[in-house]
Write the structure tokens for this entry.
Amino acid sequence: MTTLPTTPAPLKVRPGGGDRTWALLAYTAITAALLIFMRSTIADGPMKLLQPVLFGAFLLSMLFAYQWKAANWAKTIVYITGIVFVLPFMGRENASYFDLVIQILIFSALALGLNIVVGLAGLLDLGYIAFFAVGAYLWGIFGSPQLGQITGNAAYAHGLNPAYFWLFIPLAVALAALVGVLIGLPVLKLKGDYLAIVTLGLGEVIRIFANNLPITNGPQGIDGIESAPVPWLDKIAGSLGFAPEQHKLFFLYILVLAVISLIVLVNRRLDRSKIGRAWIAIREDEIAAQAMGVPLLRTKLLAFASGASFAGAMGVIFAAKQAFIDPTSFNYFQSIGVLSMVILGGMGNISGVILGAVVVTMLNFTVLPTLSEVLQAQFPNINQNLDPSKYQRFIFGFVLVFMMLFRPEGLLPSARHQVEMHQDDPPAGSLSADNHLQEGTGEGEVLSPGFATRGENERTGSEK
Amino acid sequence: MSLLDVQNVTKTFGGLTAVNDVTFQVPERSIISVIGPNGAGKTTFFNLITGIYTPDTGNIKLGGRELIGLRPDQVVEAGISRTFQNIRLFPSMTAEENIMLGRGVRLKSGYWDAILRSSKFKHDEQEAVDTARLMLDFVGLSKWRNELSTSLPYGDQRKLEIARALATTPKLILLDEPAAGMNPRETEDLKALIRAIRDELGVTVVLIEHDMRLVMTLSEYITVLNYGSKLSEGLPHEVRNDPAVMEAYLGRGTAAGEYGKEAQA
Amino acid sequence: MSAFRLHNTGDQVDLQTVMTILLQVLVGGLSLGVLYAIVALGYTMVYGVLQLINFAHSEVFITGGIVGYFVFHALQDSSMNGYLKLVLACLAAMIVSGALNVVIERLAYRPLRGAQRLVPLITAIGVSLILQDTLKFVVGLTGMFDLSVTLPKGFTSPLTKFAGIDITSLNLQVKDVILLVVATLMLIGLNLLVNHTRLGRAIRAVAHDRQTAGLMGIDSNRIISLTFLIGGALGGLGGVMYAMKYQALNAYSGMAPGMKAFSAAVLGGIGSIPGAMLGGIVLGWVETLLGVVSLFSALPGLHWLSYIKAEYKDLGGFLALILILFIKPTGLLGKSSTEKV
């Protein structure tokens, strides 16, 4: 069979002309060495500010391995160094690194899911975190003493056997996809802007339910959520020198890595298929897509359900990792956080979206809190009002506005979006984006730049 | 036996009757033109056939199958494809990808095939690529295969839209002003292309066109719409000499001789 | 709305009580509804001219409330007439909010005119977040602004008589009546402005078709700015009314009522001014009714109503929105339009 030229060459944008194999290896070695050897120096005091800097610099090596032109063996070395050696090592020395990496990976998965919905299919979903909540509460309820509370059955005083965790991941995928379809059916028939507001409302619905339904234990949340028992892995972790309380993180680290690899694979395969083309077509011109045989509702539902299922799976893992969930993890603000990851990194581009997730998660979980901590320690009398970790909204908002105004295609744009976002002058004969929204008012002569000649005004569109 | 059979179709928007009681038949393997002044309801007529609008009354049948109630994508599946008056290619896709998208409607593999990369999926992708090459070749755009659709010259964009429509293997193709914005040379090419669509691919063609020279030399039958109603129909020379048509285009009292030239402008 | 009391005698609820509750819903819902309507106008007018959901409007609105708080606070000990204080608070709020809205449009939305559809929408969300934390920063982290002591005396006294009829059971306060009157006057004023002035005609023209309006010599950028000014000023006024009604607010409290007001705008038909008013009032009623409906569970055969907790009233707007979008996607008074192909 011949190779499939589904991603044609001209769309591949690879920065850097020359081979950077040695630069890549050197960079990785230096950042890894700095991180490892300075780990105790940067553990406390003002030097702590270096923690996220060095850690971020090291993580960048993996991005460079993906982006740069370098020998494949070198890239493999970089990936293995990072994923197999440095990250687990840092996690063993200081569990907060493990926690952070798992958090980053969970949010990367969420961002990849939202990327299908927003980046590929162009559907602005502002309640995406609801699907994450579905997965988290599903396992939260069944995998914790909460089940005993609800059923009043002493046999479930500690929830289901934690081994059911494995069953609940696919269950959560299915349930989140189902919820996605149920929500999507009425909503996806709507025009884009309405979709945004309705999904925002749906996010609120889930939050209000989480706050008020007896089975979710309301604002108190659910505590004591179990994670799957994996004795053989614990043994390995133990022999590698991990403390017993780190075994769970070690397991989750491996699990999350596996799941995210699967998600990336699915994401890529869908992107490069008939379905991926249909999503892009819908994003760019719904009417033309439909007139070329793309079933709108079905295709949008697929995007919605795919995105939702990723979030559902990650919800289960999140619940297991945190052992405690409450409604605050699933509010509007969280949805916006995931959206800003997608926007920052670059809609439609997998590596871009992961980059966005890394940057935003690190900002949220290390940079800002560390900054606050250091400020507090240095200036104990500082005004509470100047605590940077209390201005996350500002930072997210700034990311969104700045990117939209100056770099709408994101830090690492997908080739497609670069084309799309820089089409200020629409091609000949097509309607300007501006005009798009007001077409159909009836009398309006459609003025299009370029070559359009006559007959634009067919007086068809007044009312249905 | 006609391929497309439109019976007494009417469509109103608010108070405006865009298409009024139009009956229209298209024999298999024919080339038919729909002409009329701006605002005559030609594009609305296409939108009714392709399912973008639903008629208030009337029937539309393709090869005996009722089309009313089908969504636009189902109409494509049934065998009618179209191009747009204001070109609507997908800007971030290459020429080839645009055509592959069009082929999608004939591909059988689904969501799980794509994720699992099943043999059915691989077969389908190959078919899409093959179709794209074939169609690019057919319309003479092979050299643009990997170029972004919007970077093509204007006339070639129109041809690419035709290729994309043909990739759906239609029985009938509707061309909405295919020659708009083309120079005489390109129009000549287009004429040959439209003939080839019918003669080589066996696809029936209906076109809306303002270029009267093209219409008169290409079509086997012409229907004239004016204010949403059928004003006249017949063979090219019959329509050309119909006083009602001349009046609709040019107003009262214009010499018949200037007609052809004027209508083109 | 916790003031409702139910005289439950055994399993029987007397008709008198039911009627009282319904009357309370009618009046309370109306005062909430006109508040939503004022805020909804800001959304609907901007949507009308730009086809953009101005997510930042909820912050523009709450800015008005905060400005109002500061005016009341500054004049707390002054012997000035309470209504004059109110007028000053409203004016200050309208100026600040209107100006803020204009600035937002200039800096964030205007550069994106003609960009891809999602771009300005995401920008608007970002502006909303930026404003939330900017407000928080500017006004400090002191938490809630409590108006219960700063409001002019008399505003919170209960209303017992209206046209000689005893209305104590309606649980109304003077401020509720102020809210109703001010909001109604504003709605009438806006209607006059839009339908009977040159400016109003220009706004309608731009909303209808910006290109053609431009050809007719209308400076659409100026009209868009003016629309933001009017919408923002109305939002600011709504903010003062909100602050007065609930007597407590903070930098983040614009979000929830803002979203409800937008729902009201869609419910009534986005882009339609009478629609926003109607939508606001319907929403006010639905929400107020949902908040008390569980009280009726004592009625025979209506036991299931007890499951509708008062907390679910916040879902009322959303449910109404979904329902209307299902039945009539263009809203109650909206005109439909199909995309030109």
Remarks:
- The two ends of chain C are 50 Å apart (CA to CA).
